[in-house]
Amino acid sequence: MTIAMTEEELLDRIKAGKLVEGPEYATERYIEGLKRTLIVSGDTELISAPAYMRAAQDAPRINSYISVTGIVQDELGHAHIAYRLLRDLGVDVEELVYERDPKDFRHPYAFDVPLDTWAEMVVANAFYDRAGFCILDDVFQNSSYGPWKRALVKVEREENFHLRHGEQWVATMSESETSKAELQQAMDWMFPMTLEWFGLPDEMKRHGEQIEYGMKGSTNDQLRQTWLSTAVPLCEEHGLNVPAHKEGDAYVLDYPFPCEFDEDAKRWLLDEGEISWDQVLERWKRRGPANEELVDQVQRGYRQMTEMLA
Amino acid sequence: MTVDEVQAALREVDDPEYPISIVDMGLVRGVEVHDDIVTVKLTYTSMGCPCQDLIKADVHKKLLSLGATQVKVEEVFDEWRRSDMSQRGIERLRRLGVA
After folding, report:
1. Confidence of residue A216 (pLDDT cuts 50, 70, 90)
2. Which one of A69, A86, B6, B85 is at 20 to 30 Å from A189 when CA atoms are compared?
3. Edge-to-edge, what's the strand order for the sheet holding B70-75?
4. Smallest Cβ distance to B50: which of A66, A153, A160?
5. What confidence tens digit (pLDDT) does each residue in A173-214 have?
6. Mean pLDDT value across chain A
């Protein structure tokens, strides 16, 4: 693969608003950064599929089952885009997807915590897909990588359907006290989980490279605020409590952030107070309870067929 | 409430995935109005369309806000073809990169 640009030439082109169409218009540092970003995106979309399939089994009606399996199909399509772009950059995608250790997958820790009820499924649509939408919309608006930017047009539309599916069910389940209590229980652990998904706060993360290279346009804290600006009003509209409120133009969190999570009880240990981001990173690195199960669902068929064909 | 008013209102109900109306998409297969009770016949682009519930909910919401006392959405299993889309719909989708 020819890499012909100097760092200065590349940055000048990006500043001038020109898109990078392939490695020949970039530097090795840019391509390596892009690969890391695409792997996170591909893994997130891919692992959301078995995570949602698990919860599709709780669908209350055939139409709901169709909706969730339709969402799963969309997510797999989005994963396919990211891996296809990685293949074009010279990555061995077969090895990446089917032979990687489950712990080395780069999807957010959130997906490693299993979704066990229909309420958790629809809150995943309303919260997790909204996070995906915020992050991908930012890439779509700001990415300097032409092939990805163009591929994201359709992805955006589909993610919009996913979060609307969540919103509609949040409205429906808010109508009775019993189902509303289920929703509230799901939101109690999934709201902080989604906020954590956006990663280290700006004061601890150097965004320099990602923003300079046009891999993203907003910082982690800005994306967190974007998410809060629509997630909180949705919950308030239906009388659901979430620990955040607006002060001036920004949302403020009403709980220690970050804090520790009891995976088995699916409960945040709010009483134990704030923990360090190093402790969060440690938990992420250990991965969550469903990590092996979900990755195995993706890899098992490949392994069995490879053995049969050998 | 007239059939024309209902048709006009349905032009403001977008497909959940694309910013084109369900009328331009060619999903509306009939409208009847009797004493503000509205019946809308709808088909989908596929039998297993994942957006069915959302489309139905959007149609209900729109027509109730217009003053309908009752809204019935009847699914008709008419085949949907690309040629059922309006020219406006086709052009909008093309701009989004959907051929």
Report:
1. confident
2. A69
3. B28-34, B37-42, B70-75
4. A66
5. 999 999 999 999 999 999 999 999 999 999 887 766 788 888
6. 94
Contacting residues of A for B42, CB less than 8 Å apart: none
Q: What is the pTM of this model?
A: 0.91
Each residue's pLDDT tens digit, A67-86:
999 999 999 999 999 999 99
Is residue A268 pLDDT above 80, yes or no? yes
Choose, out of A64, A150, A153, A161, the residue to mutate when testing the contact with B (most B CBs < 10 Å): A161
What is the least distance, in Å, from the CA of A247 to any CA of chain B?
Answer: 33
pLDDT on residue A166: 95
Residues B50, A150: C-beta atoms closer than 8 Å: no
In 3D space, the residue among A163, A124, A137 whose CA is nearest the CA of residue A223 turns out to be A137
CA distance B54 to chain A (A): 7
ipTM: 0.80
154-173 in A: which are within 8 Å (CB) of B?
154, 157-158, 160-161, 164-165, 168
**Closest CB from A150, A154, A165 relative to B54:** A165
CA of B48 to nearest chain A CA: how many angstroms apart? 6
CA distance A160 to chain B (A): 7
